[in-house]
């Protein structure tokens, strides 16, 4: 198919990567990225360096502003209100239309609101955009009482950053420890315990309501306890932004359903990044991924598919997170059927491997163990079998095992 134009709805990492990859693969047609937030920027720093003030707005841009003119990629600051793939266009909220021989949906997700009374208060903050981070940053001063609801990846990072900014942080989650599905229960325990050790008040409990009295917030818990806070932030996950796809009649099930080449059921529409969910040829629905590398990989894949190129190969799913000065990484699945092998240093778990019933590594997570995760990824991708005793033994080089 010879394409005249590709319009990308959403300029996050997935949308931007699609544009970049289209150009690097030689596409010469028109490329437009539409996003109300303007030039693409990176989100992971929003809970880390950007929130801490160590990196500014320019430092988190995905590329220099000149790149867009140099590569003839138009960035339109606007919101797409309707997809019209059959007419080859998208319609913006202001009524303008943009030609779109193909459409790539890269709308990401919106922060999930707390489904409790008071959860919709405008002073209950979320962290998804640079504007959200600016708002939170402006409220965090030494001594500010911050209640973070949700101790998963983003909640834990915000709690850690806020502590460094001098805030008095209470971290609330009904699950103890959170994150076990992502890193396994042993590392999840270790990571969660770090919060209290660093000076965060950790509360295991289910929030049931939030009230505000002047500048004061009260988070009520099912136990009857109330947490008072100046600032409340909810970090309880995202909801994929699928409204445009649904209105266009595309199949949606916790994400816009796509095949392994990011194609939706409509031949002119693709979906990438956090908003997309893969349905395998046998109908199996994969869990929707919400990680940085996945956003990039799906953008690359969509660009290849749009141009009729072979599907690029990507390794097992990978993510990272930073908190309290430690670096966490995970690859593959820690919830797959099988057993867990721990590698401990001085009795402290540092790497967890998930082995399937045949003994193959299918998942790995590590605290300050990037090399281990890279080795595990190679074992997963190449189906390299390793002896569990070697995996557990810190004296055995994982790099050697992965060869
Ligand atoms: C605070 C934070 C920290 C994170 N940290 C990590 C981390 O440490 N490690 C990791 O692996 N992942 C991390 N992530 C996740 C990672 O950033 C996301 O997976 C990635 O940003 C997803 O990219 P995306 O392009 O699919 O969506 P997004 O980055 O969400 O971009 C979607 C874009 O679509 C735009 N949009 C929405 N609707 C419309 C519309 N109708 N018209 C036009 N534009 C629209 C939005 O304005 C937005 O810019 C973090 C995310 C956040 C928010």
From TrEMBL:
Domain FAD/NAD(P)-binding: 5-299
Gene3D superfamilies found in the cross-reference section: 3.30.390.30, FAD/NAD(P)-binding domain
Domain Reductase C-terminal: residue ranges: 318-402
Pfam families membership: Pyr_redox_2 (PF07992), Reductase_C (PF14759)
InterPro entries referenced in this protein's UniProt entry, alphabetically: FAD-oxidoreductase/Apoptosis, FAD/NAD-bd_sf, FAD/NAD-binding_dom, FAD/NAD-linked_Rdtase_dimer_sf, Reductase_C
Keyword line: FAD, Flavoprotein, Oxidoreductase
Signal peptide positions (record): none
Cofactor(s), by name: FAD
Name of the protein this chain belongs to: FAD-dependent oxidoreductase
Organism whose genome encodes this protein: Sinomonas flava
